[in-house]
Amino acid sequence: MLKQISVITALLCTVFIFEYCSKKNTDAIASQSYPAITAAFGNNIDPNNFANYAAQPKPNYIVKDNTGANPITNGKATIGRVLFYDKSLSIDNTIACASCHKQTFAFGDTAIQSKGVSGGLTGRHSMRLVNARFANEAKFFWNERAATLEVQTTQPIQDHAEMGFSGQTGRQNLNDLLNKLKGIGYYQELFTAVYGDVNVTEARLQECLSQFIRSIQSFDAKYDAGRALVNNDNQNFPNFSASENAGKNLFNTPPTFDATGNRIAGGLGCGGCHAAPEFDIDPNTRNNGIIGIINATGIDINNTRSPSLRDLLRNGVPNTPMMHTGVFTTVQQVIGHYGNITIAPGNTNLDPRLRPNGVGQKLNVTATEVNNVIAFMNTLSGNNVYTDVKWGNPFK
Question: Where is each Cytochrome c domain found (predicted)?
Fold first, then answer.
């Protein structure tokens, strides 16, 4: 009997010790704190429960993806979000990536040239960043000088006029920025939580910033609701008006030209360079006839990239000026440009699709066609990209 009591007592003690230790472990996990992150961001960032960047749904008809060897993770994209909005990444703590790429404007800028440090300005109009992950073109910047998004992300930081860590005229360089970030408490905590150490490197900045940018997606437009109801883009969308369907057909259908470059049949052929359903740019595209340089003479014929046409408009109004020079402020102006292409002297890089039979195309677009195309363009804009807090400023 005594032996049985001893066994029972031992078992009860074991259970008690297990439950006590389990409770202590649970309490330890529950009490895990990040004081610097809390002080900087309040409830906007929770390292114990990062926002969902990695498992966002996308339509099954979206098949392009330039993620490559840097798949999105919640932790690294969160660091990317902080870096994107942090003015500490500029030489004088006045400019962040988000200063030129504003969520309110689909991550573009309403200024033709965005402001940099010490009165500097960007050389080209700031490109919208929506759906950068789903671009068939993996190169970045208007002139595609960055082979990948990863390479692109730290170049503005090192640009003398933009964010200033250029190492020029006595200024600090990127290594100085990395040391600066290592000394900031919330980066110490974030990098430790995600990477296991506080080592801030250029490769990690590129990894995190590009993951955050690729996470910015927009698939809640009227177009997406309609595309889900049909087998392909050539069918009329049941949720579209007659004008929207007509505009879609004009957008997607290539034109037929006579020997003098005049359209005699077909549509406007916009989809030849901005193919549905991603509406990104064809990697083989050459320049589109806009060859100016902002506030300078001469020509620049090497700008061959563009952002996705998704969320170009919001409530019928362009989010930002268009083209690398910001020369157009309305879609009507853009259609007018493509409707009557003039081959400028020295432009040896004009896209062949714009010069049928070696002459500039003349689409002879009617007012009804213009209205229909604009109606269709409006269906490419959603709402969530402007309001989702996981893409918003964590410092607010």
Answer: 75-185, 242-381
Report the distance separating Cα 85 and Cα 79, nearest Å: 10
Which residues, given as ranges, of the chain have pLDDT below 50?
Answer: 1-31
Pairing of strands 255-257, 313-314: unpaired
Chain CA centroid to CA 140, Å: 11
Is residue 148 classed exposed, middle or buried when 0-12, 13-18 and 19+ CB atoms within 10 A define those classes? middle
Which pair of structure tokens corresponds to residue 23?
A: 């409770």
pLDDT confidence of residue 32 = 85
Q: How many residues does the chain have?
A: 396
b/e sequence 133-145, b meaning 16+ C-beta within 10 Å: bbbebbbbbbbbe
Q: Supply 343's token pair.
A: 């081959």
Q: Phi and psi (nearest 5°) for 287? A: -70, 160
344 and 208 within one domain: no
Main-chain dihedrals φ then ψ at residue 374, nearest 5 degrees = -65, -40
- For residues 264-298, b (16+ Cβ closer than 10 Å) or e, as one string? eeebbbbbbbbbbbbbbbbeebbbbbbbbebeeee
Alpha-carbon distances, residue 143 vs 264, 338, 342 (angstroms): 33, 20, 21
Q: Name residue, tokens 């989702």.
A: 388
Looking at residue 164, its pLDDT comes to: 98
Instruction: Say whether both 240 and 372 belong to one domain.
Output: yes
Last residue of a domain, one of 155, 184, 217: 217
Neighbours of 174 (CB within 10 A): 16
Q: Same domain for 213 and 230?
A: no
Q: What is the CATH number of the domain that holds 97?
A: 1.10.760.10
Q: How far apart are CA 379 and CA 222, in angstroms?
A: 5
Question: Which domain, by its residues, includes 333?
Answer: 222-383
Note the pLDDT of residue 5: 40
Same domain, 205 and 64: yes
Q: DSSP label at 316?
A: T
* Per-residue confidence (pLDDT) for residue 153, from 0 to 100: 98
Domain identity same for 168 and 287: no
Please, are residues 191 and 199 in contact by the beta-carbon 8 Å criterion? Answer: yes
Tokens of 47: 């390292």
Residue 297 token pair = 């003479």
Residues 68 and 191 occupy one common structural domain: yes
Answer with the one of 183, 201, 217 that is the final residue of a domain.
Answer: 217
